[in-house]
Design brief:
The structure holds two protein chains of two kinds.
Chain A (H helix, E strand, L loop, with lengths): L5 H5 L20 H4 L3 E3 L5 E6 L21 E6 L4 E8 L1 H13 L7 H31 L2 E5 L2 E6 L8 E4 L11 H16 L5 E4 L1 H8 L2 H7 L17 H12 L2 E4 L3 E5 L5 E5 L5 E5 L10 E5 L3 H5 L18 E5 L9 E13 L6 E4 L15
Parallel strand pairs in A: 1-13, 7-16, 8-9
Antiparallel strand pairs in A: 2-3, 4-15, 5-6, 8-12, 10-11, 12-16, 13-15, 14-15
Chain B lengths: L3 H9 L3 E4 L2 E3 L8 H5 L3 H49 L21
The chains are: A alpha+beta, B mainly alpha.
């Protein structure tokens, strides 16, 4: 046995534990995916959007001809569904390491360590697919998606949100003395309600944006009415986010949820970087009553092409059982086993769709990043 | 506070800007640089300098127009003199029998 593996002969490996990590960089809850129905869809589905007005009738005298008017118009939308795919390559060296671990285990039940590792890898691939779905859904609610990776370039993809629901704050919220976060949010809520008949009851923002908001003079002045008479904001600790959240919800009249989940990606150079799904300076206004309503938004889920052609391809473990919708996972090996490696794949095919254009609004409050730096802990 | 250029960019990108609790979706509705600079001495100075540059540029453009107009006026003077000389050189109208021709009759065709 190689010298480096001899340690495994003496060591009884009983568990694999997650190393200490910034919790924001751990796979977080996919909140927006959980609120968006995933519906079956096909390529080239055409949806029509009717725009027109109901017109008041004219007065017409006897024996006179009435006037006809043109009706509204249809605009057609068609989606091309892209692939969402992720693979993990198990090299020959890693396969040998796993075999060494298996050889060091005695009881049959201990073999679950290797099986668990394989299952975790597959779960990780499927979670990676769902992470991309989450990122796309958030991009849809922000009405802006740019992607430039591995030859795929998309710039400022829009889903047709009205321009007065995509607002930039005139004063960045990190300017505590002059920013007006309460006025900004309520102005956006007002125009959505009056002009589009859409009532927002929920505000989703990063913890950083929330901390900037409660530190502004304007917010503290307007929140004063929700405090006891002999209490001012000078008596309240801004670091107590739970208490501050209750005060802010009373001031704004909307539920506040803090969302800081992040995802990892690897550059072609091999460098790993993490990024938030919801940028720190972006705030989404929405209505909780629209959650999971296919009439508002959905994720169009198409048939995975790999499941259609799997029967024809060699080198695949098992069978996918015919055409399937994702996310699914499968494994392949090179036909000539040169080198002997296994590749695990996760794949889906879909894209988010927005049916109710005024369902969300976005407020850009600054270009700041996390006030508490994100990264691996130092010891 | 965003600059006016940043506000214009936000609108051109398909969005709006909220200023003093009012959502503005058109560039024409945005406050001017002078409005945005009020209360900040440094920004007022910068806005004043920018406006002075605009004024200087417009004045130089206007000065070009005045220079182009002068040659046309200089040319019109010799032409008027030539027309007067030609009129003087024309023979007097011939009087017809029994009909007096006013000497003040002039050809008014342009």
């Amino acid at each position: 046995m190689p010298v480096s593996y001899q340690l495994l002969q003496a060591l009884r490996l009983t568990a694999i534990m997650q190393a200490l990590q910034d919790t924001r960089e751990l796979p977080g809850d996919l909140r927006f995916l959980a609120r968006t129905p995933v519906v079956p869809a096909t390529d080239g589905e055409i949806m029509a959007r009717f725009s027109g007005y109901i017109q008041i009738a004219d007065l017409v005298a006897d024996d006179a001809q009435a006037v006809t008017y043109s009706t509204g118009k249809f605009t057609f939308e068609s989606n091309a569904v892209p692939n969402l795919k992720l693979g993990v390559n198990l090299t020959q060296e890693q396969i040998n390491q796993l075999l060494s671990l298996e050889a060091g285990l005695t009881a049959t039940s201990d073999n679950s360590v290797v099986t668990d590792w394989r299952n975790r890898t597959i779960d990780g691939l499927l979670f990676g697919i769902r992470q991309r779905m989450e990122a796309l859904i958030i991009a849809m609610q922000l009405d802006g998606f740019s992607y430039n990776r591995l030859g795929i370039i998309m710039t400022n993809v829009s889903w047709g949100m009205p321009s007065d629901l995509k607002v930039t704050a005139g004063v960045s919220w990190d300017t505590a003395g002059s920013a007006t976060p309460v006025a900004d949010l309520l102005a956006l809520k007002l125009i959505a309600q009056v002009r589009y008949g859409q009532v927002f009851n929920r505000v989703t923002m990063s913890t950083t944006a929330f901390r900037y908001m409660i530190a502004t003079t304007e917010f503290q002045n307007k929140a004063r009415m929700y405090l006891a008479p002999n209490v001012s904001y000078a008596n309240l600790p801004l670091a107590d986010l739970n208490a501050q959240q209750r005060i802010a919800e009373a001031t704004l009249g909307m539920t506040i949820e803090l969302y800081d989940s992040r995802y990892w990606s690897q550059a072609p150079t091999g460098a790993w970087t993490s990024a938030p799904y919801l940028p720190a300076g972006k705030i989404i206004l929405s209505n909780s009553g629209d959650d999971n309503s296919p009439m508002v938004m959905d994720f169009a889920n198409g048939v995975v092409t790999e499941s259609v052609v799997a029967e024809l391809a060699g080198g695949m473990f098992g069978s996918l059982g015919g055409a399937q919708r994702g996310p699914i996972a499968y494994a392949t090996v090179p036909n000539d086993l040169n080198p002997p490696a296994v590749t695990l794949w996760g794949v889906a095919r879909g894209f988010p769709r927005r049916h109710k254009l005024q369902a969300t609004a976005v407020l850009t409050v600054g270009s700041f990043t996390d006030s508490i730096s994100v990264g691996a802990p130092t010891f | 506070m965003l600059t006016r250029a940043q506000m214009e960019q936000a609108i051109q990108d398909g969005g709006s800007v909220v200023v003093n609790g009012q959502i503005l979706s058109r560039i024409d509705d945005l406050p001017s640089e002078a409005d945005l600079a009020q209360g900040d001495a440094a920004k007022e100075q910068a806005a004043r300098a920018a406006l002075d540059q605009q004024i200087a540029r417009l004045l130089s453009e206007r000065a070009k127009l005045s220079q182009e107009a002068q040659p046309q006026e200089a040319q019109s003077q010799p032409e008027a003199q030539n027309q007067a000389q030609e009129q003087d050189a024309q023979p007097a109208p011939v009087a017809r029998r029994g009909r007096a021709v006013p000497t003040e009759l002039k050809d008014e065709t342009p």
